[in-house]
Amino acid sequence: MTDEYVLTGAKLATMVPGDAPYGLIESGSVAVENGNIRWVGVDLPTEYADWPRRDLGGRLVTPALIDCHTHIVFGGNRALEFEMRLNGASYEEVARAGGGIVSTVRGTREASLDELVASALPRLDALIAEGATTVEVKSGYGLDRETELNMLRAARKLAELRPVTIKTTFLGAHATPAEYKDRDDAYIDEVCIPALSAAHAEGLVDAVDGFCEGIAFQPDQIERVFKAAQELGLPVKLHAEQLSHLGGTQLAARYGALSVDHVEYATEDDARAMAASGSVAVILPGAFYTIRETQQPPIEAFRTHAVPMALATDCNPGSSPLTSLILTMNMGCTLFRMTPEEALAGVTRNAAQALGLSDRGLIAAGQRADLAVWDVETPGELSYRIGFNPLNERIFADTQEGKT
Asked: Where are the beta strands (DSSP E) in 177-321?
């Protein structure tokens, strides 16, 4: 594509909040200059009359998709333990056989930087093939200084190899490694926080996350990590209230977290706190589905208190081996009764907010021209179908690549 062009004959789901569902413009055009949207509307102004045009034939155009919570960089896989569990093995038996997060930590530590990149690329490619242009990638399977840094280096490398924006998140407070068994505090102080400082010094960190749960870390331990992040000027987010209610959401809200993720066990008070802090609730149906959880996130409370809801794959080797944002949208609707409009907002506008990004997630003047063109008749069809990818083309502002 040229540096200046106009897309015409499009049904635009702009996702701009307002009276029209999806911010829909039935027969619209988009003027793009140097990868940024200059104008959106129906009657093309004369100043764009001479720009090259391309008629999209009435196809639906949405903001490109954003996966705001993934763990796509890791070593090995856990298909064997999945099979063991379905053949009757207990979690204890799986653990004794070397399964669980210990398996992923071992595989990640043994992998070279090039191997981590190579294994992550197919997962990233799957997301790109469904219209994603921005993907968050967490560390958290190294649990030692060098491997945590290597995971983040791999994430940065992905953005050099594919036309995509990668946002990195340091998740050293994910679990306690075997060598620090029963010494969680020592791990936080001796490994996690120093590794965060080293990663920040190398320019590898965009945000800081933690796992606040009975099987991971307590709120006071996470708070030490948050204080370190605060001193480094880094925003925070948190895995919280996934399996129980420990108060992680309230902690995250006090620190103005970009997002609080999972939140199956969050309460009405948690929703109020998130509304006050501006934190996004990131809903992760892939993990809910995979671990066969029964406690649903408080969707109605989030609606009542106007907490933005994002959706993400949570792609990881243990609890959510999911690389489809389109399926994630369907899961959000079928499992949690989110509406298709909420689902699409969850992988565009609200996902951008969950990453602290104000330049994408909408089709509006001043936004990046990260767009997805779909062979569907209505926006709701994106959440309706199962196992079907109707992407016609993906437009990524940084390369103006057009069709991929």
From this structure: 207-212, 238-240, 259-262, 280-283, 309-311
What is the spatial distance between Cα 144 and Cα 194, in angstroms, rounded to a whole number? 10
User: For tokens 């949405």, what's the residue?
Assistant: 62
Give the integer Cα–Cα distance in Å for 68 and 346. 9
CA distance 304 to 327: 26
Helix (H) or strand (E) holding 344: helix 340-346
* Bridge partners for 5 per DSSP: 32
Distances in whole angstroms, Cα of residue 113 to Cα of each of 78, 91, 303: 20, 30, 42
Element (H, E) at 301: helix 299-304
d(CA 149, CA 240): 24
Q: Is 135 left (phi over 0), alpha (psi -120 to 50) or beta?
A: beta
Long-range contacts of 340-344 (CB under 8 A, 24+ apart): 340/379, 340/380, 340/382, 340/383, 340/384, 341/21, 341/22, 341/379, 341/380, 342/309, 343/311, 343/382, 343/383, 344/13, 344/15, 344/22, 344/62, 344/379, 344/382, 344/383
Strand-strand pairing, 36-41 and 259-262: unpaired
CA nearest to 299, candidates 310, 290, 291: 310
| Residue 246, phi-psi category: left (phi > 0), alpha (psi -120 to 50), beta (remainder) | alpha
Measured in whole angstroms, how far is the alpha carbon of residue 185 from the centre of its chain?
Answer: 28
What is the rounded CA–CA span in Å between residue 46 and residue 240? 51
- How far apart, in Å, are the Cα atoms of 118 and each of 6, 137, 144, 214? 36, 15, 21, 33
The tens-digit pLDDT sequence of the chain (404 residues) is: 458 999 999 999 999 999 899 999 999 999 999 999 999 999 999 999 999 999 999 999 999 999 999 999 999 999 988 898 889 887 567 766 777 788 899 999 999 999 999 999 999 999 999 999 999 999 999 999 999 999 999 999 999 999 999 999 999 999 999 999 999 999 999 999 999 999 999 999 999 999 999 999 999 999 999 999 999 999 999 999 999 999 999 999 999 999 999 999 999 999 999 999 999 999 999 999 998 999 999 999 999 999 999 999 999 999 999 999 999 999 999 999 999 999 999 999 999 999 999 999 999 999 999 999 999 999 999 999 999 999 999 999 987 544 33
Helix axes 145-161, 101-110, angle to 10 degrees: 70
- φ, ψ dihedrals at 65, nearest 5°: -80, 155
Q: Are strands 371-374 and 60-63 parallel, antiparallel or unpaired?
A: antiparallel
